[in-house]
Specification:
By secondary structure, the chain is mostly beta strands. 3% of the residues lie in helices and 44% in strands.
Length: 204
């Protein structure tokens, strides 16, 4: 089947046949995601660290599936620490759905590292994990504070611990981000099967 590219010029001067719908059209290049590093839980540590983050990207993204070794039959949080900063230099607000209701609020202003995800407690149904995507925008820009957006959730087909969260956070520092630590806040460690992946995003 012949394919034609319709433009003002082609209608006036005659059509050119192509064998592909893509031929004769400008290429569209989406933002490129490149893997920087991965890390896994094995039950022995509560903290995952990404260090020596290169400055060759525009934004960062962390993708995670998480479960901890606590005995909690509930979803739980994790602390997001940037450049080893444990001071009151963060702020965060959230929207949380439980299946039976919706709540919203703030973790506070000028707080220490905020919670950044819903993770499955070790007492939840076997093989249930939380899922989280964290976007860190303009991470190397030294003229602005760092904005963080988070989509996170856990579901164990129950009325307990099934949560979906949307969150925005701010690190009130203009330094480029070179290290990120994510620490389970349940009292347990990251369980076997937990996976973290750090990506760099090129382009806008």
């Amino acid at each position: 089947m012949a394919v034609y590219k319709l433009t003002g010029s082609s209608v006036k001067n005659g059509r050119t046949e192509y064998s592909s719908f893509l031929a004769g059209n400008p290429a569209v290049t989406p933002p490129s995601y490149e893997s920087i590093a991965t890390a896994s839980g094995n039950g022995s540590s509560a903290t995952i660290t990404f260090s020596s983050i290169p400055s060759t990207y525009t934004h960062l993204q962390i993708r995670a599936i998480t479960r901890d070794t606590s005995a909690l039959n509930d979803s739980y949080g994790a602390k997001l620490k940037i450049n080893s900063d444990t001071g009151s230099n963060y702020t965060s607000h959230y929207l949380l759905g439980t299946g039976s209701g919706i709540s919203s609020g703030s973790q506070g202003t000028s707080i220490t590292p905020p919670n950044c995800m819903q993770t499955a407690g070790g007492g939840m149904a076997a093989n249930v994990f939380g899922a989280t995507i964290i976007d860190i925008l303009d991470y190397k820009n030294t003229n602005k504070y760092k904005t963080i957006k988070i989509l996170t959730g856990v579901d164990q087909n129950s009325t307990t611990g099934d949560n979906l969260g949307l969150q925005s956070a701010l690190w009130m520092n203009t330094n480029a981000i070179t290290q990120i630590d994510i620490t389970s806040d349940s009292g347990g460690n990251w369980a076997t099967g937990t996976q973290f992946a750090l990506y760099g995003i090129k382009g806008a």
